[in-house]
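Pasting as-is:
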Amino acid sequence: MVSGKLCGDNKEYVKKVKCETWRQYKNKEQVLDYIEFMDKRKSWTKARRAMYCSPRQEGAQLLLEFARPDTILYTNLVAAYATTVRRKLIDCVAKIVKSSGKIILKVTSATWKNLKFNVLWKRSGAPPLSVWA
């Protein structure tokens, strides 16, 4: 699973989708609205499953629609929602940013706390630099 660039045609598509088509993911710290669809970019040979995600709430803070950090994720997996730590880690909403020759994984503070990233990095023995929104 990888994050993708939010292209104008994807934004327009999700604006036209009926409200009842959207789904919601909730955990202790976060509420996330999302929609799944097949998407094919110009340079791709085949369509891939896409998930357009829009955080609604982080902790006790409700996020206004204009201030939501929307994300699009692409995967070649079919719908499978396992509950293992590995699956939760793969399914979390994150943004990978390349800056000054470094690759940075950005996650929300709710995701950071819920998945205990600080413990994960400590146990890995070589913690990367990380930034959370």
